[in-house]
C-alpha cells in the first residue's frame, strides 16, 4: 500500500495522474499492483455500460480455464457427440439449436450458452484463427470474442494498427459467418434460430459491461502469473487506442447487428440531433407491451431481472441508488435460484449469467456508473469465490456479499453523508436543490428533525419534474419550501446561501455527472458566490475522465419535451415529431466542471473535487480487498 | 307560471339578439349566514378587508375583466354601508361596468333575494337573459365568456338546461377532513359525457359511517355516472332567467344549493337540468368562513389569484410593492431597522413598525402602529390598529385573530 503510494506521488502531479498515470505507468514500475493495473482499463472504458465489444472479459477465463479446458472439451464432446468440431468451442447448445428440438429449449439448456461465454471466447480463438468456422448458433459470439485473444497473444507492439485491422477483420468474419449460419440454419427451422440469435446477442452484449470487473478479476485473482500481466498490458494499450468503448450508434453496421441480437426490440427514433447520433435514441413506449408478451419466451432471463428491466424501461425505477438497489436485489434472487449446470464451475457460469442479465438491463436502459460499479463488485466476488466452497456455501456467501454492498455502500453511506452534510446547515440558511436527489432529501429531512431553521428552494425542470415529488415529501414534513423552475435560477439565487446537489456519478477529474440542468445551477451558484455541495455516495465515483456531456450521455424520450402534460392548449409541437426539419434533444445528464463545485460530500468525508481520485484509489483498493 | 312563459318567450326570441345581450351578473352582497358573526355585527361581510382590499372589490374586478357589463348588487344587511362604499368607489364611474344596487331589508336568504330581484325585474325588466349569479365574497380569475357561450349553446339545444355550476378540484387539508376552505365535504354525481349534475350532497354525507345514499333510479337512467368527493363548489353559477322564475314559483326555496339545486334535481315534472363546468388552472374560491378567509388570503399573497394581487391596481386599491419572498410593502411604511419582516407578509400604507418586531406570514392593514418587540405570525390585522409593545400574536385560528383585532382596535 505504502509502496504504491509513494511512486505515485512522485511520478504524477495530483490531478493529472488520474488520467494518464494509469495507462502507462504501473506496468513498468510495479508489476504486482493489482489496483493500479485494474484501474486503467476502466479509465478508458468510458462506462461499464459501454456497448463496445469488450475483449477484456475474455482473458481471465482463458487463463483460468487453460487447464480446465481440455476437460471441458471432453465433456462437451460427450454431450454432443454429433459434431466434434463444435466441441472445440464447447458450443454445446449446437445440439439444441440446430437439432431443432424445441423440447430442449428449456431454461437450463438456454442458460448454458450464455454461461459458457467466457470459455467459448477463448476456445473460439483457436477455431477462429483457422477461420474455418462451421456454422453454428453461437458463431457470432466466438468471433466477436476472438480478436482480444489474438491481440493478447500477439505482443504489445504496434497496437493501434493491429486494432484497426482486427476490427475490420472481425466485422468481415462475422458477416461471413452469419451468412454461413443463415444458410446452415435455413433448414434448421425458424424457432431455434431466433432463440439462439437472441441468446447470442445477450452474450455478446454481456461482455461489455463485464469488462471492468473481469479485468479486476483477471488481475486480482491471478496476480501471480506474469503472462497475465502481459495480457493486461496489451488490453490497456488497446483501450487507449479505442476512445469509445461504448457502442457508437452512428456506426450503422454495428447498430444493425446489435439490433438483430437485442432482446428488447427498440425502434430507433427517426430524426436525431446530429451531434448526438452516437447515442441510442428510441421511440419510447412501444417496446413495453412487446417485451411483456415475450416474458415466457425469454427462458434464460430470470424473472426478477426481467421485472427490474421492465421497470427501468417504463421509468418506474429511476435514480442511481434506486436502480442500483433494484438490480442488486434481482441478482440476489438470481443467486438464490441458481444451480450450477453439470460440467461447469459456478464461478464462470454465474459470471456469464450475470453478464447476460446485465446486457438485458442495458437494453432496457443504459447503466449508470453506480450500477456499473456494483456489477463489478458482484462479478469480483463471484470470481473470488474459493473453489473449495460447496455450491450452497458459495451462494450464501454471494448473497450476503450483495446484501452487504447494499447496506454498506448505499444505505449506510447515505446516513454517513447525512451526518456530514448536516453540519453544513445552519439556522437561517436558504438551501437550494435541483431535481430530486435522494441523498439531499435525507440531509434536509434530518436537518429538519434536528430542529434547524432553514428554507428550501426546490428548483425543477421539465419534462420529468421530479422536484415536485421531493417538494411533496418535504412539505409533508413541515419544511418551508419554495418551488421554481430552472429558468428562474438567476433570480432565485440571490436568496440562496447554499446549494445542495445530487450526482449520478463523480468522475476522477472532479466532474460531476448528474441530471441535466445541474451544471447550470452550479454555474449560476458559483457566479453568485454561493457554495455548491454535492452529495454523492463513494460507490458512484469513477476513474473515468470526461470533459463534456456529449461523448457519453443518455437520450430520453424526445416526445417528453414536446408535450406539456395537463396543458393541451399549449402543445404546439404535436405531430411534429416526424418532421425532418425538427429534431428533439432530450438529454438526461450533463457534466459539471469541478471549478463550480465547492465540496463533494461522500461517505468518506467532505472533500474538494480535486480529491476524488484519492477516494477512487482508496475505495477501489478496499473494494478489491473486501 | 306567467313569468316562466315570459322567460321562455324571451329565449326563443332571436339568437342574434341574445348574443347581443348585455352580460349581466347578480352579486349577492350578503351571505345570509352568521359565520363571521362578531365582525359582521357592525360591518357588512363584503366590505371586510381581504389582504387590505374589501372583498367585494375582488368580485367586481373579476366580473369586470370577465366581460360582465352590468352588475346588480343586492344589499341586505348594512346596506347603507355597501351603497355608500360603492358610491364613493371608482365602480360608480367605471366605463365598462355598470353597478346597480338593489336594496331590501326583508330578505333573509338567497332565495328571498332572488325573489325580490325577480319582482323588481318584472317592473323594470332589468334581467334580460342569462346572468351570472355570484356571491360578493368570491375571489376568482376564471374567464367567463366561454362558459357563458357554452351555457347559451347548451340552452339552445336543450330548453331545460337552466344552470351551469362551476366546480373545482379541491385540495383536501391533511389535518381536518374538511377541504382547505373549511367547507363540508361535497359529494356530487355527474354524467361524464354531458356533464349534467345528477346528485348533490353537501350536508347529509354521513362521515361517521362514510356512506352516501344514491337514488337507484340514477343508475337506471344514466349509462354512466361519475362520482366526485374531491370537488369544491365555487358558488359561481351561470343561470338562465328560468332560475328566477323557479324561485318565484317555489317560495320555500331559501338556500341556493340546499333547496334550489336539490329541488331541481328531485323534481322530474319540469325536467330542468343543471350542468357543471370544471375549471382547471384558474382560481375560484369563496370566503365563506374564517378558515377560507385564511386560505384565500394566503392564495392571494402567493399570487394564485393573479391579476388580483396586492401589487396590481384593481378596483381602486393602492398597489403596494412586491419584494422577494412574497413581501408586499407599501412605499411609505416606516420600519425600524431592527424589525424583521419575513416571507409572505403584506404591510399596508402608513403603517409604522417598531424596534425589534418580527412579522411573518401576516397581513397588516393601513395606518397601523405596531409597538416594539412585537411578534406577529400568521395573523391578520386590519386597518388603523395600534398594537402595544411586547405583544405576541400568533393565533392558529383566524377567529381568534379577529378577536384580537377587535380588542386592539377598541383600545
TrEMBL record, chain A:
Superkingdom, natural source: Eukaryota
One term under GO cellular component: cytosol
GO molecular function: translation initiation factor activity
Bias kind Polar residues: ranges: 20-31, 108-117, 129-143, 195-205
Ranges annotated as biased composition (Low complexity): 41-56, 73-87, 174-191
Record field: compositional bias (Basic and acidic residues): 1-15, 148-173, 226-254
Keyword Cytoplasm: yes
Residue ranges of the region described as Disordered: 1-254
Keywords, sorted A to Z: Cytoplasm, Initiation factor, Protein biosynthesis
Subcellular location: Cytoplasm, Cytosol
SUPFAM superfamilies xrefs: NagB/RpiA/CoA transferase-like
Family: Belongs to the eIF-2B alpha/beta/delta subunits family.
Subunit description: Component of the translation initiation factor 2B (eIF2B) complex which is a heterodecamer of two sets of five different subunits: alpha, beta, gamma, delta and epsilon. Subunits alpha, beta and delta comprise a regulatory subcomplex and subunits epsilon and gamma comprise a catalytic subcomplex. Within the complex, the hexameric regulatory complex resides at the center, with the two heterodimeric catalytic subcomplexes bound on opposite sides.
Protein's recorded name: Translation initiation factor eIF2B subunit delta
Species, as recorded: Brassica carinata
UniProtKB/TrEMBL annotation, chain B:
Domain Nucleotidyl transferase intervals: 25-165
Nucleotide-binding found in the keyword field: no
EIF2B subunit epsilon/gamma LbH domain sequence ranges: 324-391
Keyword check for Cytoplasm: yes
InterPro entries linked: eIF-2B_epsilon_N, eIF2B_epsilon, LbH_EIF2B3/5, NTP_transferase_dom, Nucleotide-diphossugar_trans, Trimer_LpxA-like_sf
Annotated keywords: Cytoplasm, Initiation factor, Protein biosynthesis
Locations listed in the record: Cytoplasm, Cytosol
Record-level Gene Ontology MF annotations: guanyl-nucleotide exchange factor activity; translation initiation factor activity; translation initiation factor binding
Lineage top rank: taxon: Eukaryota
Any one of the GO CC terms: eukaryotic translation initiation factor 2B complex
Residues in the signal sequence: none
Family: Belongs to the eIF-2B gamma/epsilon subunits family.
Subunit structure: Component of the translation initiation factor 2B (eIF2B) complex which is a heterodecamer of two sets of five different subunits: alpha, beta, gamma, delta and epsilon. Subunits alpha, beta and delta comprise a regulatory subcomplex and subunits epsilon and gamma comprise a catalytic subcomplex. Within the complex, the hexameric regulatory complex resides at the center, with the two heterodimeric catalytic subcomplexes bound on opposite sides.
Name of protein: Nucleotidyl transferase domain-containing protein
Amino acid at each position: 500500500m505504502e509502496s504504491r503510494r509513494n511512486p505515485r506521488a512522485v511520478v504524477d502531479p495530483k490531478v493529472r495522474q488520474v488520467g494518464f498515470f494509469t495507462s502507462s505507468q504501473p506496468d513498468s514500475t510495479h508489476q504486482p499492483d493489482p489496483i493500479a493495473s485494474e484501474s486503467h482499463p476502466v479509465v478508458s472504458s468510458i462506462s461499464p455500460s459501454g456497448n463496445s465489444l469488450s475483449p477484456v472479459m475474455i482473458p481471465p477465463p482463458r487463463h483460468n480455464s487453460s487447464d480446465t479446458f481440455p476437460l471441458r472439451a471432453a465433456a462437451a464432446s460427450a454431450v454432443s457427440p454429433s459434431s466434434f468440431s463444435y466441441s472445440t468451442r464447447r458450443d454445446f447448445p449446437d445440439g439444441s439449436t440446430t437439432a431443432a428440438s424445441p423440447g430442449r429449449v428449456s431454461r437450463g439448456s438456454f442458460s448454458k450458452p450464455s454461461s459458457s461465454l467466457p470459455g467459448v471466447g477463448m476456445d473460439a480463438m483457436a477455431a477462429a484463427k483457422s477461420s474455418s468456422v462451421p456454422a453454428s448458433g453461437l458463431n457470432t459470439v466466438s468471433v466477436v470474442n476472438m480478436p482480444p485473444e489474438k491481440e493478447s497473444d500477439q505482443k504489445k507492439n504496434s497496437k493501434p494498427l493491429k486494432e484497426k485491422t482486427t476490427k475490420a477483420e472481425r466485422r468481415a468474419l462475422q458477416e461471413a459467418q452469419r451468412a454461413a449460419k443463415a444458410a446452415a440454419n435455413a433448414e434448421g427451422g425458424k424457432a431455434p434460430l431466433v432463440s439462439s440469435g437472441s441468446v447470442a446477442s445477450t452474450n455478446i452484449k454481456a461482455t461489455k459491461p463485464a469488462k471492468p470487473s473481469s479485468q479486476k478479476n483477471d488481475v486480482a485473482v491471478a496476480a501471480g502469473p506474469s503472462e497475465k500481466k502481459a495480457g493486461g498490458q496489451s488490453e490497456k494499450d488497446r483501450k487507449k487506442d479505442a476512445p469509445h468503448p461504448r457502442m457508437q450508434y452512428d456506426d450503422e453496421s454495428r447498430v444493425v447487428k446489435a439490433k438483430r441480437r437485442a432482446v428488447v426490440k427498440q425502434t430507433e427514433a427517426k430524426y436525431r440531433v446530429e451531434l448526438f447520433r452516437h447515442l441510442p435514441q428510441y421511440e419510447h413506449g412501444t417496446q413495453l407491451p412487446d417485451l411483456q408478451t415475450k416474458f415466457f419466451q425469454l427462458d434464460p432471463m430470470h424473472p426478477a431481472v426481467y421485472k427490474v428491466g421492465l421497470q427501468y424501461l417504463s421509468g418506474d425505477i429511476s435514480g442511481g441508488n434506486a436502480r442500483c438497489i433494484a438490480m442488486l436485489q434481482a441478482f440476489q434472487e438470481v443467486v438464490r435460484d441458481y444451480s450450477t449446470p453439470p460440467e461447469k464451475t459456478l464461478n464462470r457460469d454465474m459470471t456469464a449469467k450475470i453478464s447476460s442479465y446485465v446486457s438485458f438491463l442495458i437494453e432496457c436502459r443504459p447503466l449508470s456508473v453506480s450500477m456499473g460499479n456494483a456489477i463489478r463488485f458482484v462479478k469480483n466476488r463471484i470470481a473470488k469465490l474459493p473453489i473449495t466452497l460447496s455450491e450452497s456455501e458459495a451462494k450464501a456467501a454471494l448473497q450476503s456479499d450483495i446484501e452487504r454492498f447494499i447496506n454498506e455502500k448505499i444505505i449506510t453511506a447515505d446516513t454517513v453523508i447525512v451526518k456530514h452534510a448536516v453540519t453544513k446547515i445552519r439556522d437561517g440558511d436558504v438551501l437550494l436543490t435541483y431535481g430530486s436527489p435522494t441523498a439531499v432529501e435525507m440531509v434536509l429531512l434530518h436537518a429538519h428533525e434536528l430542529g434547524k431553521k432553514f428554507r428550501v428552494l426546490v428548483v425543477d425542470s421539465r419534462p420529468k419534474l421530479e422536484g415536485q415529488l421531493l417538494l411533496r415529501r418535504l412539505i409533508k414534513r413541515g419544511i418551508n419550501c419554495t418551488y421554481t423552475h430552472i429558468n428562474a435560477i438567476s433570480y432565485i439565487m440571490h436568496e440562496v446561501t447554499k446549494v445542495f446537489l445530487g450526482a449520478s456519478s463523480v468522475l476522477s477529474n472532479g466532474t460531476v455527472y448528474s441530471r441535466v440542468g445541474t451544471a447550470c445551477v452550479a454555474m449560476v451558484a458559483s457566479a453568485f458566490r454561493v457554495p455548491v455541495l454535492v452529495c454523492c455516495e463513494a460507490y458512484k465515483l469513477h476513474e473515468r475522465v470526461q470533459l463534456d456531456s456529449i461523448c457519453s450521455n443518455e437520450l430520453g424520450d424526445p416526445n417528453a419535451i414536446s408535450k406539456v402534460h395537463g396543458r393541451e392548449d399549449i402543445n404546439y409541437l404535436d405531430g411534429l415529431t416526424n418532421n425532418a426539419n425538427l429534431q428533439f434533444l432530450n438529454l438526461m445528464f450533463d457534466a459539471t466542471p469541478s471549478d463550480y463545485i465547492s465540496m463533494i460530500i461522500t461517505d468518506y468525508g467532505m472533500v474538494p473535487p480535486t480529491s476524488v481520485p484519492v477516494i477512487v484509489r482508496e475505495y477501489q483498493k478496499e473494494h478489491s480487498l473486501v | 307560471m306567467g313569468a316562466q312563459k315570459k322567460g321562455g318567450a324571451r329565449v326563443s326570441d332571436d339568437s342574434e339578439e341574445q348574443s347581443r345581450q348585455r352580460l349581466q351578473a347578480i352579486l349577492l352582497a350578503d351571505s345570509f349566514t352568521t359565520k363571521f358573526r362578531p365582525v359582521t355585527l357592525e360591518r357588512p361581510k363584503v366590505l371586510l378587508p381581504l389582504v387590505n382590499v374589501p372583498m367585494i372589490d375582488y368580485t367586481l374586478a373579476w366580473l369586470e375583466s370577465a366581460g360582465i357589463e352590468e352588475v346588480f348588487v343586492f344589499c341586505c344587511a348594512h346596506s347603507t354601508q355597501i351603497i355608500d362604499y360603492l358610491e364613493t368607489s371608482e365602480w360608480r364611474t367605471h366605463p365598462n361596468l355598470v353597478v346597480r344596487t338593489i336594496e331590501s331589508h326583508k330578505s333573509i336568504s338567497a332565495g328571498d333575494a332572488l325573489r325580490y330581484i325577480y319582482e323588481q325585474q318584472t317592473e323594470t325588466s332589468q334581467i334580460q337573459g342569462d346572468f351570472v349569479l355570484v356571491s360578493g365574497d368570491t375571489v376568482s380569475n376564471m374567464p367567463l365568456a366561454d362558459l357563458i357561450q357554452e351555457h347559451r349553446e347548451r340552452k339552445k339545444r336543450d330548453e331545460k338546461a337552466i344552470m351551469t355550476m362551476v366546480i373545482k378540484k379541491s385540495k383536501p387539508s391533511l389535518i381536518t377532513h374538511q377541504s382547505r376552505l373549511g367547507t363540508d365535504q361535497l359529494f356530487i354525481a355527474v354524467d361524464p359525457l354531458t356533464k349534467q349534475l345528477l346528485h348533490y350532497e353537501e350536508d347529509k354525507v354521513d362521515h361517521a359511517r362514510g356512506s352516501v345514499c344514491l337514488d337507484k333510479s340514477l343508475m337506471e337512467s344514466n349509462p354512466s355516472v361519475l362520482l366526485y368527493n374531491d370537488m369544491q363548489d365555487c358558488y359561481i353559477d351561470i343561470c338562465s332567467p328560468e332560475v328566477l322564475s323557479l324561485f318565484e314559483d317555489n317560495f320555500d326555496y331559501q338556500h341556493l344549493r340546499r333547496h334550489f339545486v336539490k329541488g331541481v334535481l328531485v323534481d322530474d315534472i319540469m325536467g330542468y337540468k343543471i350542468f357543471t363546468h370544471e375549471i382547471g388552472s384558474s382560481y375560484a374560491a369563496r370566503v365563506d368562513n374564517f378558515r377560507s378567509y385564511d386560505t384565500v388570503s394566503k392564495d392571494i399573497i402567493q399570487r394564485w389569484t393573479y391579476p388580483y394581487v396586492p401589487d396590481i391596481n384593481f378596483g381602486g386599491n393602492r398597489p403596494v410593492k412586491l419584494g422577494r419572498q412574497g413581501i408586499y410593502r407599501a412605499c411609505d411604511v416606516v420600519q425600524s431597522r431592527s424589525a424583521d419582516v419575513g416571507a409572505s407578509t403584506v404591510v399596508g400604507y402608513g403603517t409604522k413598525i417598531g424596534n425589534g418586531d418580527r412579522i411573518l406570514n401576516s397581513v397588516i392593514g393601513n395606518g397601523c402602529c405596531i409597538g416594539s418587540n412585537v411578534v406577529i405570525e400568521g395573523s391578520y390585522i386590519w386597518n388603523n390598529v395600534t398594537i402595544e409593545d411586547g405583544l405576541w400574536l400568533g393565533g392558529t385560528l383566524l377567529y381568534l385573530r379577529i378577536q384580537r383585532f377587535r380588542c386592539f382596535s377598541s383600545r
